[in-house]
Amino acid sequence: MPQAAFDCVIRAGRVGTAVDEFDADIGIQDGTIAAIGRDLAAGAIEIDARGKLVLPGGIDAHAHIEQLSAAGIVNADTFESATTAAAFGGTTTVICFAAQHRGMNLMTVVADYMALARKGAVIDYTFHMILTDPTKVTLEEHVPALVAQGHSTLKVFMTYDLLNVGDEGLLDILLAARRNKAFVCVHAENHGMISWMGKKLVEKGYTAPKYHTVSHPRGCEAEAFTRLIAFAELIDQPIMIFHVSTAEGVDVIRRARGRGLKVFAETCPQYLFMTAKDLDKPGVEGAKWMCSPPPRTEADQEAIWQGLALGDLQVVSSDHAPYAFDATGKLSAGANPSFKQIANGLPGIEARLPLLFDAMVSKGRLGLPKFVELTATAPAKIYNLHPRKGSIAVGADADLVIWDPKRQVALADGMLHDRTGYTPYAGRTVRGWPETVLRRGEVVVRADKLAARPGSGAFLPRTGGAAAAPLGRLAADMDPARNFGARLY
Ligand SMILES: [Zn+2]
């Protein structure tokens, strides 16, 4: 019997990238794509992809996994369950968080999350480091040491009592990032507005989950984006604005980008497919749809789609933040909590790609190449995982998803693989489903079964890369040539 030319050949599928669609075989050798062509020689494993789409594995650049909240609530997923859910949903790389809480040593925090991922992850992973305690030691010793180990994004909160770093903390972090060629991702909402509105609402008895949406007035997004962008411009530090939810927020980003600033932006399925009305349910049921920022209106959805179409927003991530709808999660403060006592966040790591595939490929909004771009190629490039990840090219990791474009799936509670037991998209039917998933050439999902061992996911060390490189356009106040010689960097 002739020796197989490849470890695996995916035969006769329709291959899609962020720029092209074509019929081809893909030959895989040693975990990477070795050949793309017609009538390739035999593989030791042959996968028939006739009538199917072969797309790059998804990259989910924003997922909270096995993370302890500031309020001490552990999220419902372990690395094993969250990355299993990711794999079933066609995602082969995740960027999750190593979350420092106040008083914690960042070195220890990162080592702890690395150990959890090493034990449980079934897909490849890398981290954003959440900084809530930007002390001198953290910024001047730990951040440089961790960046050198391949942890090159800092994540900052501008809101939440126990997480937000304040204006000066944010400036300190932007400067530390610039010094270390790291990238900065930000949860940008005005803290005072949210805090004040929350108190007013609760005082007057408006405690149901739907009032959570009111407590994050839409203006708190544009205000924080504007302030953040002014800070980033002062420091000359590129930023990523996470989970954009409002039309006004999109406008602020568009104007900044129009001025040539390196402002990148992300949105999530909850801002494209949900509105505030989804929280208007009897009792505390609406808690299942609670996330921050909250879903807004249909007009915002349209503005965000337009932002994606024009490139003002580049990435769609899940912001997977799973809490079970019980006393371990959403209802940890009792059976009848006020919205202020309910953990924020939704499960979404598995549904992200099917929801977007249905909207963009099956229903045609923005089309297949843009689907691949927003969910794989752009996050790979921005977070410096490309060309290893994010596309289908010779030499790239063979992270490939074979989609059945015709399969219709009615989403329902309990059918996905995370541990919340519910999906905010229950009752919707999507067309198109990830059928077979390969991670570095290995079949990890096939015929609705997982074939990957916990811990088989690999850590992807990263440098900041091109997106994180400053413009070199110094603000006058930071430029010794124009600030009377003050050296502030
Ligand atoms: Zn998040």
Describe this entry's structure for a reader.
The protein has 489 residues and is α/β, with parallel strands linked by helices. The chain contains 13 helices and 17 strands. Strands 1, 2, 3, 4, 5, 14, 15, 16 and 17 form a nine-stranded mixed beta sheet that branches. An eight-stranded parallel beta sheet has the order 6-7-8-9-10-11-12-13. Helix 2 links the parallel strand 7 and strand 8. The longest helix has 17 residues, at 219-235. The structure holds zinc ion. Zinc ion (ZN) is lined by residues 62, 64, 319, 321. The site of zinc ion has 4 residues, from loops.
Furnish the topology, listing elements before pairings.
Layout: E1 6-16, E2 21-29, E3 32-37, E4 43-48, E5 53-56, E6 58-63, H1 79-88, E7 91-99, H2 106-120, E8 124-130, H3 136-148, E9 153-157, H4 166-179, E10 183-187, H5 191-203, H6 210-215, H7 219-235, E11 239-241, H8 247-258, E12 263-267, H9 269-273, H10 298-310, E13 315-316, H11 352-362, H12 367-382, E14 400-410, E15 429-439, E16 442-446, E17 449-450, H13 465-468
Parallel strand pairs: 1-4, 1-5, 6-7, 7-8, 8-9, 9-10, 10-11, 11-12, 12-13
Antiparallel strand pairs: 1-2, 2-3, 5-14, 14-15, 15-16, 16-17
Helix pairs in contact: 1-2, 4-7, 7-8, 11-12
The structure holds zinc ion.
Zinc ion binds next to loops.
Keywords:
489 residues; alpha/beta; 17 strands; 22% strand; binds zinc ion
